[in-house]
Amino acid sequence: MDGNGRWAQQRGKPRSAGHQAGLKVTRDIVEHCARLQIDALTVYAFSSENWQRPEKEVSFLMELFVKAIRSELNKLHENNIRVQFIGELSRFSEGLLKEIKTATDKTANNTGMFLNIAVNYGGRGELVSAMSDIAAKVKNGELDVTDITEKTLTEHTWLAQCPEPDLFIRTGGEQRLSNYLLWHLAYTELAFTDTLWPDFDGTELDSIIQNFSSRQRRFGQTGEQVKAS
Ligand code: FPP
Protein backbone atom coordinates (compact mmCIF):
# COMPACT_ATOMS: atom_id res chain seq x y z
CA MET A 1 0.00 0.00 0.00
CA ASP A 2 2.71 2.44 -1.10
CA GLY A 3 2.34 6.13 -1.86
CA ASN A 4 0.44 7.61 1.10
CA GLY A 5 3.22 10.07 1.94
CA ARG A 6 3.65 11.33 -1.62
CA TRP A 7 -0.12 11.63 -2.09
CA ALA A 8 -0.27 13.94 0.94
CA GLN A 9 2.83 15.93 -0.03
CA GLN A 10 1.41 16.56 -3.52
CA ARG A 11 -1.57 18.20 -1.80
CA GLY A 12 0.54 20.23 0.65
CA LYS A 13 -0.74 18.10 3.53
CA PRO A 14 1.15 16.29 6.28
CA ARG A 15 2.04 12.63 5.63
CA SER A 16 -0.49 11.62 8.27
CA ALA A 17 -3.29 12.83 5.97
CA GLY A 18 -2.01 10.37 3.38
CA HIS A 19 -2.19 7.49 5.86
CA GLN A 20 -5.70 8.52 6.85
CA ALA A 21 -6.77 8.55 3.20
CA GLY A 22 -4.93 5.24 2.75
CA LEU A 23 -6.97 3.68 5.53
CA LYS A 24 -10.21 4.64 3.79
CA VAL A 25 -9.01 2.96 0.58
CA THR A 26 -7.92 -0.12 2.56
CA ARG A 27 -11.47 -0.40 3.92
CA ASP A 28 -12.96 -0.18 0.38
CA ILE A 29 -10.52 -2.73 -1.03
CA VAL A 30 -11.12 -5.20 1.83
CA GLU A 31 -14.88 -5.02 1.15
CA HIS A 32 -14.30 -5.33 -2.59
CA CYS A 33 -12.12 -8.44 -2.15
CA ALA A 34 -14.66 -10.00 0.23
CA ARG A 35 -17.40 -9.41 -2.38
CA LEU A 36 -15.19 -11.09 -5.00
CA GLN A 37 -14.92 -14.06 -2.60
CA ILE A 38 -11.14 -13.89 -2.53
CA ASP A 39 -9.75 -16.46 -0.07
CA ALA A 40 -7.08 -14.29 1.52
CA LEU A 41 -5.96 -10.67 1.33
CA THR A 42 -2.68 -9.69 2.95
CA VAL A 43 -1.91 -5.99 3.38
CA TYR A 44 1.46 -4.50 4.29
CA ALA A 45 0.62 -1.86 6.89
CA PHE A 46 3.97 -1.48 8.67
CA SER A 47 7.31 -3.09 7.85
CA SER A 48 10.02 -4.02 10.32
CA GLU A 49 12.05 -1.22 8.68
CA ASN A 50 9.31 1.42 9.16
CA TRP A 51 10.42 2.05 12.78
CA GLN A 52 13.17 4.18 11.22
CA ARG A 53 10.60 6.80 10.17
CA PRO A 54 10.26 10.03 12.17
CA GLU A 55 8.91 9.27 15.66
CA LYS A 56 5.87 11.49 14.99
CA GLU A 57 4.84 9.45 11.95
CA VAL A 58 5.40 6.13 13.75
CA SER A 59 3.21 7.17 16.69
CA PHE A 60 0.54 8.47 14.32
CA LEU A 61 0.46 5.10 12.54
CA MET A 62 0.28 3.19 15.84
CA GLU A 63 -2.70 5.31 16.94
CA LEU A 64 -4.31 4.89 13.54
CA PHE A 65 -4.02 1.09 13.82
CA VAL A 66 -5.70 1.12 17.25
CA LYS A 67 -8.51 3.38 16.03
CA ALA A 68 -8.92 1.42 12.79
CA ILE A 69 -9.26 -1.93 14.54
CA ARG A 70 -11.78 -0.44 17.00
CA SER A 71 -13.90 1.19 14.32
CA GLU A 72 -13.78 -1.58 11.70
CA LEU A 73 -13.98 -4.74 13.79
CA ASN A 74 -17.77 -5.13 13.94
CA LYS A 75 -18.13 -4.64 10.19
CA LEU A 76 -15.33 -7.11 9.47
CA HIS A 77 -16.98 -9.63 11.78
CA GLU A 78 -20.40 -9.09 10.13
CA ASN A 79 -18.74 -9.80 6.79
CA ASN A 80 -17.50 -13.15 8.17
CA ILE A 81 -13.86 -12.04 7.72
CA ARG A 82 -11.06 -13.74 9.70
CA VAL A 83 -8.59 -11.11 10.85
CA GLN A 84 -4.98 -12.12 11.50
CA PHE A 85 -1.94 -9.99 12.26
CA ILE A 86 1.40 -11.19 10.97
CA GLY A 87 4.77 -9.87 12.13
CA GLU A 88 6.86 -9.55 15.28
CA LEU A 89 3.96 -8.33 17.41
CA SER A 90 5.78 -8.23 20.75
CA ARG A 91 7.26 -4.80 19.99
CA PHE A 92 3.85 -3.09 20.07
CA SER A 93 2.28 -1.24 22.99
CA GLU A 94 -0.04 -3.07 25.38
CA GLY A 95 -2.97 -1.05 24.03
CA LEU A 96 -2.36 -2.12 20.44
CA LEU A 97 -1.69 -5.73 21.46
CA LYS A 98 -5.03 -5.75 23.26
CA GLU A 99 -6.89 -4.55 20.13
CA ILE A 100 -5.00 -7.11 18.01
CA LYS A 101 -6.03 -9.91 20.37
CA THR A 102 -9.65 -8.77 20.51
CA ALA A 103 -9.87 -8.65 16.70
CA THR A 104 -8.13 -12.00 16.23
CA ASP A 105 -10.20 -13.78 18.90
CA LYS A 106 -13.53 -12.29 17.82
CA THR A 107 -13.13 -13.33 14.18
CA ALA A 108 -11.21 -16.61 14.67
CA ASN A 109 -14.22 -18.84 13.96
CA ASN A 110 -15.42 -16.91 10.92
CA THR A 111 -15.34 -18.81 7.67
CA GLY A 112 -14.96 -16.08 5.05
CA MET A 113 -11.93 -14.25 3.68
CA PHE A 114 -8.71 -14.11 5.66
CA LEU A 115 -7.59 -10.52 6.15
CA ASN A 116 -3.92 -10.67 7.12
CA ILE A 117 -2.54 -7.37 8.34
CA ALA A 118 1.26 -7.34 8.22
CA VAL A 119 2.64 -5.13 10.99
CA ASN A 120 6.28 -4.97 12.09
CA TYR A 121 6.55 -7.54 9.35
CA GLY A 122 9.65 -8.57 7.42
CA GLY A 123 9.90 -11.57 5.12
CA ARG A 124 13.38 -12.47 6.34
CA GLY A 125 12.27 -12.18 9.95
CA GLU A 126 9.35 -14.51 9.22
CA LEU A 127 11.73 -17.10 7.80
CA VAL A 128 14.09 -16.81 10.78
CA SER A 129 11.12 -17.29 13.12
CA ALA A 130 9.92 -20.38 11.19
CA MET A 131 13.41 -21.90 11.11
CA SER A 132 13.96 -21.24 14.78
CA ASP A 133 10.63 -22.95 15.66
CA ILE A 134 11.61 -25.93 13.52
CA ALA A 135 15.08 -26.10 15.11
CA ALA A 136 13.50 -26.11 18.58
CA LYS A 137 11.26 -29.03 17.57
CA VAL A 138 14.25 -30.95 16.20
CA LYS A 139 16.12 -30.28 19.43
CA ASN A 140 13.31 -31.64 21.62
CA GLY A 141 12.76 -34.65 19.36
CA GLU A 142 9.32 -33.57 18.10
CA LEU A 143 10.65 -33.43 14.54
CA ASP A 144 13.43 -35.26 12.71
CA VAL A 145 15.77 -33.38 10.36
CA THR A 146 14.79 -35.76 7.56
CA ASP A 147 11.12 -34.75 7.98
CA ILE A 148 11.82 -31.12 7.05
CA THR A 149 10.28 -30.26 3.70
CA GLU A 150 9.01 -27.09 2.03
CA LYS A 151 5.60 -27.96 3.52
CA THR A 152 7.15 -28.05 7.00
CA LEU A 153 8.54 -24.57 6.52
CA THR A 154 5.25 -23.23 5.17
CA GLU A 155 3.45 -24.67 8.19
CA HIS A 156 5.75 -22.70 10.50
CA THR A 157 5.26 -19.37 8.76
CA TRP A 158 2.74 -16.77 9.86
CA LEU A 159 0.53 -17.55 6.86
CA ALA A 160 0.32 -21.27 7.55
CA GLN A 161 -3.48 -21.24 7.36
CA CYS A 162 -3.70 -19.43 4.02
CA PRO A 163 -3.33 -20.57 0.42
CA GLU A 164 -0.28 -19.31 -1.50
CA PRO A 165 -0.92 -15.82 -2.87
CA ASP A 166 -1.88 -15.78 -6.56
CA LEU A 167 -1.36 -12.08 -7.08
CA PHE A 168 0.90 -9.41 -5.56
CA ILE A 169 0.05 -5.77 -6.16
CA ARG A 170 2.33 -2.88 -5.26
CA THR A 171 1.06 0.66 -5.73
CA GLY A 172 3.16 3.83 -5.75
CA GLY A 173 5.47 3.19 -8.71
CA GLU A 174 8.30 1.24 -7.07
CA GLN A 175 9.09 -2.16 -8.54
CA ARG A 176 10.50 -4.12 -5.63
CA LEU A 177 9.33 -6.51 -2.93
CA SER A 178 10.75 -4.63 0.07
CA ASN A 179 11.09 -7.77 2.21
CA TYR A 180 7.43 -8.73 1.73
CA LEU A 181 6.23 -12.36 1.88
CA LEU A 182 9.54 -13.62 0.49
CA TRP A 183 8.74 -17.32 1.00
CA HIS A 184 5.12 -17.09 -0.14
CA LEU A 185 5.66 -15.15 -3.36
CA ALA A 186 7.71 -17.87 -5.08
CA TYR A 187 5.11 -18.44 -7.83
CA THR A 188 2.95 -15.37 -7.35
CA GLU A 189 2.11 -13.14 -10.31
CA LEU A 190 3.44 -9.61 -9.77
CA ALA A 191 1.65 -6.39 -10.67
CA PHE A 192 2.99 -2.87 -10.21
CA THR A 193 1.05 0.34 -10.67
CA ASP A 194 2.10 3.99 -10.48
CA THR A 195 -1.19 4.84 -8.73
CA LEU A 196 -0.55 6.11 -5.21
CA TRP A 197 -2.40 3.98 -2.63
CA PRO A 198 -4.97 6.68 -1.64
CA ASP A 199 -5.98 6.91 -5.34
CA PHE A 200 -6.29 3.14 -5.79
CA ASP A 201 -9.83 1.75 -6.13
CA GLY A 202 -11.95 -1.28 -6.97
CA THR A 203 -12.03 -0.41 -10.68
CA GLU A 204 -8.23 -0.56 -10.92
CA LEU A 205 -8.17 -3.74 -8.83
CA ASP A 206 -10.68 -5.33 -11.22
CA SER A 207 -8.56 -4.39 -14.19
CA ILE A 208 -5.39 -5.84 -12.56
CA ILE A 209 -7.31 -9.05 -11.78
CA GLN A 210 -8.54 -9.20 -15.38
CA ASN A 211 -4.95 -8.90 -16.64
CA PHE A 212 -3.89 -11.57 -14.11
CA SER A 213 -6.60 -13.92 -15.42
CA SER A 214 -5.18 -13.69 -18.93
CA ARG A 215 -1.70 -14.77 -17.84
CA GLN A 216 -0.58 -18.34 -18.34
CA ARG A 217 0.87 -19.69 -15.10
CA ARG A 218 3.26 -22.46 -16.05
CA PHE A 219 4.85 -23.41 -12.71
CA GLY A 220 7.90 -24.74 -14.57
CA GLN A 221 5.95 -26.62 -17.25
CA THR A 222 5.87 -25.70 -20.93
CA GLY A 223 2.96 -23.71 -22.34
CA GLU A 224 1.82 -26.79 -24.31
CA GLN A 225 1.75 -28.94 -21.17
CA VAL A 226 -0.35 -26.36 -19.35
CA LYS A 227 -2.81 -26.15 -22.28
CA ALA A 228 -3.07 -29.94 -22.43
CA SER A 229 -3.88 -30.23 -18.74
C1 FPP B 1 3.35 3.23 2.74
O1 FPP B 1 3.26 4.50 2.10
C2 FPP B 1 2.26 3.09 3.70
C3 FPP B 1 2.43 2.84 5.06
C4 FPP B 1 3.75 2.64 5.68
C5 FPP B 1 1.27 2.76 5.98
C6 FPP B 1 0.12 2.00 5.40
C7 FPP B 1 -1.03 2.04 6.35
C8 FPP B 1 -2.30 2.23 6.00
C9 FPP B 1 -2.75 2.39 4.59
C10 FPP B 1 -3.36 2.18 7.04
C11 FPP B 1 -3.99 0.81 7.03
C12 FPP B 1 -4.35 0.37 8.39
C13 FPP B 1 -4.72 -0.90 8.73
C14 FPP B 1 -5.07 -1.20 10.14
C15 FPP B 1 -4.75 -2.01 7.76
P1 FPP B 1 4.43 5.54 2.31
O2 FPP B 1 4.15 6.34 3.53
O3 FPP B 1 5.74 4.81 2.31
O4 FPP B 1 4.30 6.43 1.03
P2 FPP B 1 5.48 7.21 0.28
O5 FPP B 1 6.33 6.15 -0.39
O6 FPP B 1 4.73 8.04 -0.70
O7 FPP B 1 6.22 8.02 1.30
Q: What general form does the structure show?
A: globular
Helix-strand sequence:
HHEHEHEHHEEHH
Count of runs of 4 or more consecutive helical residues? 8
Q: List segments where confidence is low: pLDDT < 50 over at least 5 consecutive residues.
A: none
The CATH superfamily name is Decaprenyl diphosphate synthase-like
Can you summarize this structure?
By secondary structure, the chain is of the alpha/beta class. It has helices spanning 4-10, 15-35, 55-78, 94-107, 123-139, 150-155, 202-213, 223-228, and strands spanning 40-47, 82-86, 114-121, 167-170, 189-192.
Describe this structure in words.
The protein is of the alpha/beta class and 229 residues long. It has a single domain, classed as Undecaprenyl pyrophosphate synthetase. Helix content is 47%, strand content 13%. The protein has 8 helices and 5 strands; from the N terminus they run H-H-E-H-E-H-E-H-H-E-E-H-H. The protein has helices at 4-10, 15-35, 55-78, 94-107, 123-139, 150-155, 202-213, 223-228; strands spanning 40-47, 82-86, 114-121, 167-170, 189-192. The strands form 2 sheets. A 3-stranded parallel beta sheet has the order 1-3-2, with helices on both faces. A two-stranded parallel ribbon has the order 4-5. Helix 1 (4-10) crosses helix 2 and helix 2 (15-35) runs parallel beside helix 3 (55-78). The longest helix is centred in the N-terminal third of the chain and has 24 residues, at 55-78. The chain is globular. It starts with a helix and ends with a helix. 27% of the residues are buried. The model has no long low-confidence stretch (mean pLDDT 97). Residues 1-6, 19, 22-23, 26, 43, 45-46, 50, 65, 68, 117, 172 line the site of farnesyl diphosphate.
